[in-house]
Amino acid sequence: MSDRLATARPRGLSFVVDSPRWLGPLMIGPAVLYIVLVVGLPFVLAILYAFSDVSMGHRTLEFVGFRNFASVLGTPKFQTALKNTFVFAVTSQVLVMVLATVLALALIRDFHGKWLVRLLILLPWVAPISLGTIGWLWILDSTYSVINWTLEALGLITNEGWLMWLGVPHLAMASVIVIHVWRILPLATVILIAGLTSIPHDIHDAAQMDGAGFWRHLFQVTVPLIRPIMLVAGLFGLVFAFTDMIVIFVLTRGGPYDTTQVLASLAFFTGIQGGDLAEGAAVALFLFPLLVAVAVGFLRVARRTEVT
To answer: Which CATH number does the domain 68-307 belong to among 3.40.50.300, 2.40.10.10, 3.55.50.30, 1.10.3720.10?
Structure first.
């Protein structure tokens, strides 16, 4: 009897593993569980907080409707953060796509030291962003900035005219955009390299036989073929830009005078450091419709591109 049970158990387990009906859910189950625990539960909790009066001072939850959203919308700080979010995300992503396309086109060619160049390009992505941003904090320091020292050595600025990279509003915004581009550029470059290498060589040979020059080949052959890949890279980049606050938190903390404050950092400072969890959750939820609209728009354009 025991021998029959021992042989029946492996058969049942092998049936589950070998069955297409159960193997798929079994393999994707851990990923779904991870998303539910890491993303789903905090999202539900944020919705619950946004429609309540919860704060760090008390644990009771009372439903207040849209009062938190109305209170947040009426503040100049939120309006400034909303504008800065679009400026930060759109500007950085345009720069990322242009530079990533240039790097991808260069890195698909064979040259000496190609592996070293690829390694150097990937370093900002694999290195911890907090450590990299702290390094940039020293590079942009008003007293010890290596950039100012180099500009002075080249005679472009004087000792009295050192630039306050993180103290002047437009320079601070430009600095955080540049550092965000430095961080996201490797990911977009790798995605575009994968897209470029998937183009059949016959298409390039046919364009060359037709006498297409570099720019015509680029904009009429290469770019249309990798446009869906570029849209996917752009979607990932915009999601990162809309939700990123590490660079701003380490470098400027939203300053000077909230000129680099974005929605993600404003939600953190309002909810965590300010103690108003309800308004912080309301600010964070404003990101959700923005990201949904961006994702739907990009995916529709990518689908139409693939169909055509």
So the answer is: 1.10.3720.10
